[in-house]
Design brief:
Blueprint: H1 2-10, E1 13-17, H2 23-31, E2 36-40, H3 43-52, E3 57-64, E4 68-69, H4 71-78, E5 84-92, E6 95-99, E7 110-113, H5 115-128, E8 133-136, H6 140-153, E9 163-167, E10 177-181, E11 190-197, E12 209-216, H7 224-233, E13 239-246, E14 254-261, H8 267-279, E15 283-290, H9 305-319
Parallel strand pairs: 1-2, 1-3, 7-8, 7-9
Antiparallel strand pairs: 3-4, 3-11, 5-11, 6-9, 6-10, 12-14, 12-15, 13-14
Helix pairs in contact: 7-8
Bound molecules: 3-phenylpyruvic acid (PPY).
Site (Essential for prephenate dehydratase activity): 191
GO molecular function: prephenate dehydratase activity
Pfam families: PDT
Length: 323
C-alpha cells in the first residue's frame, strides 16, 4: 500500500516555497520524496499553482513553535478558490549564517532572510554582530541564492546585504562560507508544514487526526467567543491551535483559524461541526488529515462514536414512540 502511495506521488507535482534548500523543501522530502518537486517564489504562488491545476499538491509552512502562525499561509489558504489540507510534516529548525567567500563576521551589517527566520535568530545575531539589520527575503534560501549569484558576478556590494540566514542542513550547498552555525535563539524549535490540495476526497481517518477550520463568531457581544468554543468543549473535542486573523473589512472584525483534534468521520467532531454551523455565520472546512506526530486522539468518557450513535438511536426511538 505504501508503495502504491509512493508510486502515485512519484508522478505528482508538488509545489513548495523555494528555491532548493528551504526548510519547506525538507518538509516536502519527508512527505513525498519521489514526487516532482516544483520550487515557487512565495506561498501565494505555490497555493495558486494547485488552484490552477499546475501542481497536484503544495507544501507550505503554517506554524512554528517560536513565532506562532505564518500569517501569509493562513490568509492565502482561505482567500481565493477553495483548498484543503491533506497532510502535515514537522521539521526541527536550526540556522546558519552564510556569506560570500572571504567575508568576515565584522563585515556583516545586513542579513537577508525570511521574516520567521529573523525572528528566531535576532537575539543571537545581535550578540554576534551588534547593530545588524534584517533585510526581508521571500525565503531563507532565496537570500543565499542572491548572495551566491552576486558573489559570482563580482557585484556583491550592490546587493544591500552581506550575509544570509539559512537552514543549517543546506548551509554547505549554497557555495558560500559558513560564518556561524546554530544561531537560533531557541534550540529545538519546530516548524509545522501542511500539504495542500484541491477539495475532493478527505484522507481516511487514522485515529490520530486533525481538522482545520476557519470560523467567524456568532455575534459581536459578551460571550460570543465562548459560544463558539462551547461547540467543541461540549463534544469533548480538544483544540491544538487557535488564532485570530483580521477579516479585513473593518477594524475589530476577526476570524478564528482553528486546528481541532479528530477527523470529520469522528462523531464527536461531526457534532461540533453541526453545532458551529448552527451558531456561527461562517464556517470553512479546511480538511481532516493524519497528524505528523501520530498521537492518538484522546476520547473523553461519553464522546466515543458508540456513545454518539447510541444516543442518536435512543432519540430516534423516542420519536417513533418507543420509551
Ligand atoms: O525560508 C524557508 O526556508 C522556509 O521554508 C520558511 C521558513 C522560514 C523560517 C522558519 C521555518 C520556515
Amino acid at each position: 500500500m505504501e508503495n502504491a502511495v509512493q508510486q502515485e506521488s512519484g508522478t505528482q507535482r508538488y509545489a513548495f516555497l523555494g528555491p532548493v534548500g528551504t526548510f519547506t523543501e525538507a518538509a516536502l522530502v519527508q512527505v513525498a520524496p519521489a514526487a516532482q518537486h516544483v520550487p515557487m517564489p512565495d506561498v501565494v504562488t505555490a497555493l495558486d499553482a494547485v488552484r490552477r491545476g499546475d501542481a497536484e499538491r503544495a507544501v507550505v509552512p503554517i506554524e512554528n513553535s517560536v513565532e506562532g502562525g505564518v500569517s501569509a499561509t493562513l490568509d492565502a489558504l482561505t482567500s481565493g478558490d477553495p483548498l484543503v489540507v491533506v497532510g502535515e510534516a514537522l521539521v526541527e529548525i536550526s540556522f546558519a549564517l552564510v556569506a560570500a567567500p572571504g567575508t568576515r563576521l565584522e563585515d556583516v551589517r545586513h542579513v537577508a532572510t525570511h521574516p520567521h527566520a529573523w525572528a528566531q535568530c535576532r537575539g543571537t545575531l545581535a550578540r554576534l554582530a551588534p547593530g545588524v539589520v534584517h533585510v526581508p527575503a521571500t525565503s531563507t534560501a532565496a537570500g543565499a541564492a542572491l548572495l551566491a549569484e552576486h558573489a559570482a558576478s563580482g557585484d556583491a556590494d550592490e546587493l544591500g546585504f552581506e550575509a544570509a540566514l539559512v537552514a543549517a542542513h543546506s548551509a554547505a550547498a549554497h557555495g558560500l562560507d559558513v560564518l556561524a552555525r546554530g544561531v537560533e535563539d531557541n534550540v529545538g524549535a519546530v516548524t509545522r508544514f501542511v500539504v495542500v490540495a484541491r477539495p475532493g476526497t478527505v484522507p481516511p481517518r487514522t485515529g490520530a487526526d486533525k481538522t482545520t477550520l476557519l470560523v467567524h463568531l456568532p455575534h459581536n457581544d459578551a460571550g460570543s467567543l465562548l459560544t463558539m468554543l462551547e461547540q467543541f468543549a461540549a463534544r469533548g473535542v480538544n483544540l491544538s491551535r487557535i488564532e485570530s486573523r483580521p477579516i479585513g473589512d473593518a477594524l475589530g472584525r476577526y476570524a478564528f483559524s482553528i486546528d481541532a483534534e479528530g477527523h470529520l468521520a469522528d462523531e464527536r467532531l461531526a457534532a461540533a461541526l453541526t453545532g458551529l454551523h448552527r451558531v456561527c455565520p461562517f464556517v470553512l472546512f479546511l480538511g481532516s488529515y493524519p497528524r505528523a506526530d501520530g498521537v492518538a486522539t484522546a476520547v473523553a468518557p461519553g464522546t466515543s462514536d458508540d456513545a454518539f450513535t447510541s444516543a442518536q438511536e435512543w432519540v430516534a426511538g423516542l420519536r417513533r414512540g418507543l420509551t
